[in-house]
Structure prediction request, 290 residues.
Amino acid sequence: MSIKNITQRILGQEDLNFLLTNRLPRIALTRFMGWFSQIEHPWVAFLSIKTWQFFSQLDLSEAKNTHFKSMHACFTRELKANARPIDQAENVLVSPCDALIGAFGQVRDGMAFQAKGFAYNLWELIPDAQLAASYEGCDYVTLRLTSSMYHRFHAPVDGILKKLTYISGDTWNVNPIALKRVERLFCKNERAVIEYALAEQDNPQIITLVPVAAILVASIRLHCLNVLLHLKYPGPNQIPCYFQFQRGSELGWFQHGSTILFFAPPAYKLMPQWKLGDTIKMGQALFYCQ
Prediction:
């Protein structure tokens, strides 16, 4: 049996996986990885990326560039032009990122689920109680980015980024193993709450995207801000914005990758073809307006 298969079998043991990825000094390790991944040395970059490819399904065939000056540059790579066709149907909201469908449902009694049997309160996740309450009965989906995926995220529809709230926090792993063990995990981790208004309406409906960081993958970059949101960012925590984006245009990226929680306005429902564990690509229809 190969070293790769042995390692995958070891990490496939849930208790050991949880121990290795969550009982380590998470924040210190995350800061170290943030530093290490940005070392611009040819051999460091080459060996790091080759090791990453050996233990994952990293595919760089769609990357705009295939030579990277650091591992960080590979993590935050751009794609070739037209690598992700954008669904232009007026009645749909598209996926903002490449991801696995981790969870979905409707908000009930102010609660959503991170995994079967593990619920969290929206008012804990979203610090604006009025905004959180507005999603009662609405559909939501958890989009989980694996380490090897394309890590940039995009506008789900033509609209206006109206407000950003940054919340510093922990860096628990957000893989399914941790989500089944750590209650209210999304409410504990570093995250940004992005309030995004549909542009074509006089009284616009609000989409809320919540990028959640994780171990080794903290820090979020948004094009509309000239600061990097990270664990040491001092604030202000609430940042009023008014930036217009077109459907599919790039909003920003995780420094490495993690999870995006997508809360749709009342008129939109999750496309019926999506099931738990499905892989979705950025630009594919995710929600539709009835």
User: Anything to note?
Assistant: The chain has nine helices and 17 strands. The mean pLDDT is 80. Residues 3-75 form one domain.
